[in-house]
# Entry
Amino acid sequence: MNTWNYTHKPDFILMGLTDSKEIQLVISVIFLLIYLLTVLGNIGMILIIRLDVQLHTPMYFFLTHLSFLDLSYSTAITPKTLENLLTSTKNISYVGCFTQMYFFVLLAATECFLLSSMAYDRYVAICNPLHYSVVMSSRFCSTLLGGSYVLGALDATVNMLCMATLDFCNSNVIQDFFCDASPLIALSCSNTNDIEFIIFIFAGFTLLLSLITISASYMSILSTILKINSTSGKQKAFSTCASHILAVTMFYSTIIFTHLKSNKSSLGKDQVASVFYTIVSPMLNPLIYSLRNKEVKCAVSRVIKKRERTLDT
# Structure
């Protein structure tokens, strides 16, 4: 069988989202604006949390790293996508393709576990408020964060080791705008059943474990909120979770739709979902947490006033 690897044919070709030059130009402008908003929004969120002492709490500790993850995996995808849209060069090297895939899986899986850690934080804050400062100590928060990165790295490493065993046949054309497991498996002339099963198991474990944690946390939160007598108390308790619920729903709905199905089915038909969670979602998260959060708005005001006083002196 005629196969090739990076020593003989070093590049893959990313087909992108469309062949139309006019549509490519429009999409590139939209993606560029989205990416600039992603960079500004997430860096701005990180800086506000760092600069305002009142936001030095476990919830905002996790939110800082959520912004970092969103910024990072958007950067792993969007610049190369823009290059492909704006130039005639649609190549990506073998090493570059697998590097992009590794960091994307690493960051996306880490975000799954980070979102579940944030759900647990809300559970402790609402269901066990008297012990919140003891339970959500700096050491425990750092452990949750480190565990999220370790599990994300494990998922990405298994994914990479499985994909590295594949042989690729004559075609090196990836029917997608970035390097993901599904379109790469479609190019392989190897028997991919075992590899697909292993990837599915690890991806399923990541999603299932994080979703079980999130679901259990919010079931307990809902039970506690329903026991609150005052309407204002219920609204206040729910408002502390609303942004996180929206972020979780947005992230998981698209990633589950795209990945928890056969790797070789519907190639090219799920790119809208892929665009949403790789490019659009990282832009929306800082907006969700800032526009719906009075603490962040107040923090921005305090930081600006502090800056003005510093300049005046």
About this structure: The two ends are 75 Å apart (CA to CA). Confidence is low (pLDDT under 50) at residues 1-7, 262-268. The longest strand covers residues 11-14.
